[in-house]
Amino acid sequence: MIQQTLVLIKPDGLAKSLTGNILAKFTETRLEIVACKMIRVSESLAQEHYKFLNDKPFFSELIKYLQGEFHSRKKVMAMVYWGEDAIGKVRQVCGATNPEEADPVSIRGSYGRITTSGVYENVIHASSDDKEAEREIKLWFEPHEIIIDCYPTKATREVFERITWETASV
Ligand code: IDP
Ligand code: MG
């Protein structure tokens, strides 16, 4: 089945300069990147992303972690991978949630760690099923940021202010 899935390179993966290594590991899936951007993650976005874990004892640390509070740069790289069985293939390369238990050749097994305060710094996020992928992709991306039509869209007419370049390109 053709699927799309959300992948986030979390702040630890970016702070450790692992983007190239992570993308290289994903090339073996032969999936296609159909969207990609760098994001400063707000508290509300982090809380919405992980809302199903909000009763866990590690929730507040997890929100700080995703926002980059424990790393020098507050940023996350968000991507959509697309292709045959994308969700399972990406999860396979990603590895288990606990980096100590993850397959050592997986991304989390190779690069993840558990901090002394118990945060699983597991380098990346990957959607775990179709429903989660749809919710997460729609949370992190607008339709125009994705180069394929993965979910139905509708035209809207809204009036709002936006920031633009002060001068034209030369
Ligand atoms: P997943 O990322 O493999 O889908 P989830 O259960 O959805 O795992 O958990 C989301 C994130 O919450 C994990 O990636 C990890 O960063 C963190 N997390 C999950 N379980 C624990 C835990 O027991 N201790 C600390 N952090 C955890
Ligand atoms: Mg999950």
Q: What would your notes on this structure say?
A:
The protein has about 170 residues and is α+β, with helices and mostly antiparallel strands. It has a single domain, classed as Nucleoside diphosphate kinase-like domain (Alpha-Beta Plaits), CATH 3.30.70.141. Helix content is about 30%, strand content about 20%. It has seven helices and six strands; from the N terminus they run βααβααβααβββα. It has helices spanning about 10-15, 20-25, 45-50, 60-65, 85-95, 105-110, 130-140, and strands spanning about 1-10, 30-40, 75-85, 115, 120, 125. The strands form two sheets. The chain has a four-stranded antiparallel sheet with strand order 2-3-1-6, sandwiched between helices. The structure holds inosine-5'-diphosphate and magnesium ion. Inosine-5'-diphosphate binds near residues 62 and 122.
Which CATH class applies here? Alpha Beta
Shape field: globular
Query: Numbering strands along the chain, what is their spatial order in the largest sheet?
Result: 2-3-1-6
CATH homologous superfamily - what is it?
Nucleoside diphosphate kinase-like domain
Bound molecules: inosine-5'-diphosphate, magnesium ion
β-strand percent reads 15-25%
Q: SSE order in H/E notation?
A: EHHEHHEHHEEEH
- Radius of gyration from the CA trace? 17 Å
The amount of helix comes to: 25-40%
What is the count of distinct domains? 1
**Unreliable parts:** none
Intertermini distance: 46 Å
Number of helices: 7
The CATH architecture designation is 2-Layer Sandwich
Oligomer: single chain
* Structural class computed from helices and strand pairing: alpha+beta
CATH topology title: Alpha-Beta Plaits
